[in-house]
Amino acid sequence: MTSLEAADDEPDAWFKLDRDGRKLAVGGDWTIRQSARLDRELAALDLAQGIRIDASGISRLDSAGAWLLLRTSRAAGGGAGLNLPERYGPLLESLNTEQKPEKHKSRIPPGFRGRLYKIGRATMHAYTQSVSMLGYLGRVTVETGEAIARPKRNLRFAAIAHQVEETGINALPIVGLLSFLIGVVIAYQGITQLEKFGAQMLTIDGLGIITLREMGVLMTSIIIAGRSGSAFTAQIGTMRVNEEIDAMQTMGLNTVDTLVLPRIIGLVIALPLLTLYADIMGLIGGAVMCYFDLNITIPSFMRELQQALSVKTLMVGLVKAPVFAFVIALVGCYEGFQVERNAASVGLLTTRSVVEGIFLVIVLDAAFSVMFSVLGI
Q1: Quick check: pTM over 0.85?
Q2: Who wins on pLDDT, 344 or 7?
Q3: 20 to 30 A Cα–Cα from 187, which one of 104, 105, 123, 359?
């Protein structure tokens, strides 16, 4: 006979194997506290096939102990039987039942109806998103008017200065580098095409007009939408996840005055200055390309540029910058407040804010182009 303990000195959980190895008697408290010891000692047993397990001596049983019993029974080929107190039957049965996950049933119908369903769902989502954002725009507009009316009370100048530094000064390297390279590309493509007609000098005219009217402000806005717009969403979204915004509202702080207005005003100040900086860097890139490819000196480049451009050309690009900045900041802050209380939502809405910001910037740029064309500007 194999036994863990003598019958007169039984531990909290015990088992005994009879002499012929056909019956395994178990008893005591088969709980998780005893499971590590029982697991080691049961694994060392050499059980015969068809062994009968008598568990009538068990006084306490939890899921860990029930699993050890079930595993022992299966190791013996299913056993001739497992005698267990009736009150523990449901527990053993729940562990012994194979849990099959229910097959997921999609609500989207197959075929053409499914495609119509997806189109309709996307349309309704865009509609509700537009209505919600317009409502948020109205709230921000009212709050901005009140802040301007009482600037000492509502405007946080230190926060605005911080946002100008974050969105403007810290963005100078990336904006300058990309604008310089875009100027090089525009000049190179212009030279390649115009030299066929012997009009290489017109490259300078095209470079100046394209950079000042369109590419400077557009590329700067796209860079800022990806850099600062996403940062606004991630910062405010993380505050929602950490329940900091709830704490601010409990303290009676206006979240628009505290979180939104400094970001909007800071970006509205920074983006026109960044646009002017990007215009200069783009022209420098074009001048470098013209010098090395066409042997046009810098004084000659500046004279031709002065004849081709006017203050109106520069102002067309700069007028767009505050509008683009307002839209980028508004979208970034709005999506930040839509974040749910989980980390995945922060990433999802940060991506959405970048996509929506760039999309709206391009749409507004097209609208400005049509408007200026109609006005003859």
Answers
A1: no
A2: 344
A3: 359
Q: Which pair of tokens denotes residue 100?
A: 């099959």
268 and 325 Cβ atoms separated by less than 8 Å: yes
Listed in sequence order, the DSSP H helices in the chain are: 32-43, 63-75, 89-96, 111-149, 151-154, 157-167, 172-194, 202-210, 216-224, 230-241, 244-250, 255, 261-294, 298-308, 311-337, 343-375
Q: Extract the tokens encoding 335.
A: 């999506």
Q: What is residue 331's predicted lDDT score, i.e. its pLDDT?
A: 92
Please determine, looking at this structure, whether the domain spanning 2-96 carries the CATH number 3.30.750.24: yes
Q: Domain coordinates of the chain in residue numbers?
A: 2-96, 152-375
Picking from 166, 141, 129, 171, the residue whose alpha carbon sits closest to that of residue 352 is 129
Higher pLDDT, 148 or 349: 349
DSSP 120-148: HHHHHHHHHHHHHHHHHHHHHHHHHHHHH
Interior/surface letters 141-157, b for 16+ CB within 10 angstroms, e for the rest: eebbeebeeeeeebbbe
Enclosing H/E stretch for 27: strand 23-30
With a pLDDT cut of 70, the percent of the chain lying above it is 92
Residue written as token pair 């509700």: 128
Tens of pLDDT, residue by residue over 145-204, are 887 787 777 678 888 899 999 999 999 999 999 999 999 999 988 888 887 787 878 888
Whether pLDDT at 99 is above 70: no
How many CA atoms lie within 13 Å of 120's alpha carbon, on the beta-carbon side?
8
Of the candidates 164, 144, 151, 154, which has an alpha carbon nearest to the alpha carbon of residue 263?
Answer: 164
Q: Report which DSSP code applies to 48.
A: P
Cα(232)–Cα(245) distance, integer angstroms: 14
Per-residue model confidence (pLDDT) at position 102:
62
301-329 in b/e form (b: 16+ CB < 10 A) is: beebbeebbeeebbebbbebbebbbbbbb
Question: Are the beta carbons of 43 and 68 closer than 8 angstroms?
Answer: no
